[in-house]
Amino acid sequence: MQSEGQNNLYRVVDGYIPKGPLSKKNSGRSWLYGYNEQYDFVNISKTGEVGDIVEISGLKIGLPPRPKLTPQRHKTKSLQYWEREEFPKELKKISSIFQWNEMPTNFKDRWVDYIEAEFDRREEGYWFMNQGEPTYVTGSHYMYLQWTSIDIGYPDYREANRVFFIFWEACKADKRSFGMTYLKIRRSGFSFMGSSEAVNSGTLAKDARVGILSKTGSDAKKMFTDKVVPISNRLPFFFKPIQDGMDKPKTELAFRIPASKITKKNMHEVAADELEGLDTTIDWKNTDDNSYDGEKLLLLVHDESGKWIKPNNILNNWRVTKTCLRLGSKIIGKCMMGSTSNALSKGGGNFKKLYEDSDVESRNANGQTKSGMYSLFIPMEWNMEGFIDRYGMPVLKKPTKAVLGVDNEMITNGAVDYWNAEVDSLKSDADALNEFYRQFPRTESHAFRDESKSSLFNLTKIYQQIDYNDSTIKEHYITQGSFHWKDGQKDTQVIFSPDTRGRFLVSWVPNKNLQNNIVTKRGMKYPGNEHIGSFGCDSYDISGTVGGKGSNGSLHGLTKFNMDDAPSSEFFLEYIARPQTAEIFFEEVLMACIFYGMPLLCENNKPRLLYHFKNRGYRGYSMNRPDKQFNKLSKTEKELGGIPNSSEDVKQSHASAIESYIEKHIGLDMSGAYRDSDDMGTMPFAKTLEDWARFDINNRTKFDASISSGLAIMANQKHSYLPEQKQSKISITFGKYNNKGSISELLR
Q: What is the pTM of this model?
């Protein structure tokens, strides 16, 4: 591995396991392959020893220790890189295990060590010297590099692929994991890597089934016939089982008799009639929600999963397919899923959800992610053809001197520089730019860009803000945490505590003198900082959900223009969650309002939150609807406050409020109307920005963050909504944008 400062794909975690236990277990070769609960890491070493602990996409992985002597193609450091070993000509002539058995003893004696070594490398992985650095590749990666014939001959060694295969090996080793979902760039080699693993797994296991799916049945068939079958046919005889049926099957590879693991002990044993059948098959299925329903799978290679178009649904398919990989609670098979993403409305949205549900840092009580898989993203600059040097490392920035590439071509530009130039040239065509982002993403948000024409708001500004946020260190301006009552005593003081398990994200905490600022009028409690800002909330009434599909509760805090020690016109709090009970949500919202001393505007169609405020003595914190005089409010509205979500005028005003806020405060203000043209807006909360990008006014229930953030804006501008001012102050319609240029233009 390279040092941490040289890449952002992984990091070496120094001292993760104390030296004493590490040395003791290494001496006894007692480290087991798989998940180690005591130290919370996945060991992929099969030698009983552990070397470096690396972290990839949040997963701690134990590698084998470095060997004392590492194979190298040359003594000179600059001439040390991966080089495939040529298959000996004498062995090329042998087509099957039966032909090997017929060879004379002296021939077998000459080659048995070579064959044994290949089996060991397939099982344990392989070390080689790469520019002076001992470098480990897994067994699956070795089989890909050494024995997988692809369209260009044999694969190049790439550091990005090494990281991919290490992560995949950890997914295989981890008893908690159903496999991986890989968010990739176009032409990353995933189809060939998946095909190689299908063949590798299918030629090792007995009485097993390997399946292939893709965005269409014809794509799955093509992957099978053009990749899987040729790879299998070109394996050396000692890895290749006896195949049943045609040499070039169209639907199924069936292995009936296995290739024996040739060793010194058994190399003279022949007896074909004593060989047991392998009874393993590799096949493909048409794209359907129930493609492999009811079947037991050892491995499922799931290609182009982000491109499933209606009526097919990758989420539905995975719910069915997942059952094929387990027996009861035991996971017996793995899924290797990889794809670029379509636009969200064309299958990308479902894949995005599956990817996000595979975050290794978010697990249930069984230790599994929501999907059961683990997510991996590798940025484009690490795997872009034409920018990989002979050592498999990416050339990120334009080099001062030309660099020799892995394809023996000279590299004169950097991958990031190339990417920036392409982005710059496409700024006049928003949809072409977003398609480029999806195919060659540098961030996860790039990969899930939507089509601009589908957005209600100024998508250019939203994505400018997202890109800017992606380039900064979130921990510098966002704190995750929780609110609680001092000493557990309600109605005393609210305390905010940083907590990685907390449901609140905050970018600003008021000074002590502004915290818990309560004003009492006529015996009622009112927020003392109403002049500084407000909250907007999208609540819910029922704790339980049907099929776990209930929407989240959402809360946003937004400051006004002010002269206090507080930011002006900035969102400072985001809460998007659904705690175990609605009562927990109500109390958390109440504590946030009290801590910041700000009022709350909430939709009143789900009134339990408003009743909670009233019953606890905080009715003064619940704002009345701003579009009606107090004497025009209904009895319930006077009792509880809140604003209805059914009124068309309210819906339009809500959308118009978000639209206006985006124009003034999000992204770059190229016209310089509201701030300097090169000043980026301030909006640190990614989920809210993404929610705005997808917002559909005709289907508002899906967009919790948009609802609550829009209500916060309306709360801060409440005087604009008074009936007598309505005609002159606000428009109840919102603009439509031409998103084809570098600047979204308002259509008049």
A: 0.77
Residue of 585, 575, 630, 598 whose CA lies nearest to 716: 598
Q: Is 122 left (phi over 0), alpha (psi -120 to 50) or beta?
A: alpha
Of 517, 515, 539, nearest to 600 (Cα)? 539
What's the CA dihedral at 356, 359, 364, 370 to 10 degrees?
40
User: With contact defined as beta carbons under 8 Å apart, do 210 and 218 qualify?
Assistant: no
In the chain, CATH 3.40.50.300 sits at 66-258+271-378
The pLDDT of residue 725: 46
Burial of 48 (0-12, 13-18, 19+ CB in 10 A): middle
User: Is there a contact between 97 and 260 (Cβ–Cβ < 8 Å)?
Assistant: yes
SS3 content of the chain, % helix, strand, coil (to 5): 35, 20, 45
Encoded tokens for 330: 């035991």
Please list the alpha-helical segments (H only) found in 203-307. Answer: 217-223, 229-233
CA distance 554 to 651: 17
d(CA 336, CA 48): 26
Residues facing 280 on adjacent strands:
255
Q: Average pLDDT of 135-150?
A: 96
Alpha helices (H) in 597-739, listed in sequence order: 608-615, 635-640, 648-665, 686-694, 704-716, 726-729
CA atoms within 13 A on the CB side of 338: 24
The dihedrals phi and psi of 329, each to the nearest 5 degrees, come to: -90, -10
Q: Which residues contact residue 391 at a Cβ distance below 8 angstroms, ignoring those fewer than 6 apart? A: 81, 130, 131, 159, 406
Phi and psi (nearest 5°) for 27?
-60, -40
Angle between helices 459-470 and 648-665 (to 10 degrees): 50
Q: What stretches of 348-408 adopt beta strand conformation (E)?
A: 374-377, 403-404
The CA distance from 126 to 70, in Å, is: 9
Residue 430 vs residue 121, higher pLDDT: 121
Categorise residue 548: left if φ over 0, alpha if ψ from -120 to 50, beta otherwise.
Answer: left
pLDDT band at 273 (very low <50, low <70, confident <90, very high): very low
Identify the three-state secondary structure at position 64: coil
- Of residues 724 and 502, the one with the higher pLDDT is 502
Within its chain, how far is the Cα of 333 from the centroid? 21
**CATH number of the domain located at residue range(s) 66-258+271-378 in this protein:** 3.40.50.300
Residue 270 has pLDDT above 90, yes or no: no
Cα–Cα distance measured from residue 473 to residue 471, given in angstroms and rounded to the nearest whole number? 7
Radius of gyration, CA atoms only, the chain = 30
Tokens linked to 221: 């068939």
Q: How far apart are CA 59 and CA 418, in angstroms?
A: 31
What DSSP state is assigned to residue 306?
Answer: B
Q: Which helix (H) or strand (E) holds 415?
A: helix 415-425
d(CA 519, CA 312): 56
Give the per-residue pLDDT at 498.
Answer: 94
Least confident of 157-161, 455-459, 680-684: 455-459
Number of residues assigned to the chain: 748
Amino acid 42: pLDDT: 98
Q: Are 462 and 664 in contact (CB under 8 A)?
A: no
pLDDT in tens, 699-725: 888 899 999 999 999 999 988 887 764
Rounded Cα distance, 27 and 57, in Å? 30
Return the minimum-mean-pLDDT range out of 508-512, 562-566, 614-618, 720-724. 720-724
CA distance 215 to 339: 10
Burial label, 604 (beta-carbon count in 10 A; 0-12, 13-18, 19+): buried
Which residues, 6 or more positions from 347, have their beta carbon under 8 angstroms from its beta carbon?
215, 306, 307, 308, 309, 310, 312, 314, 341
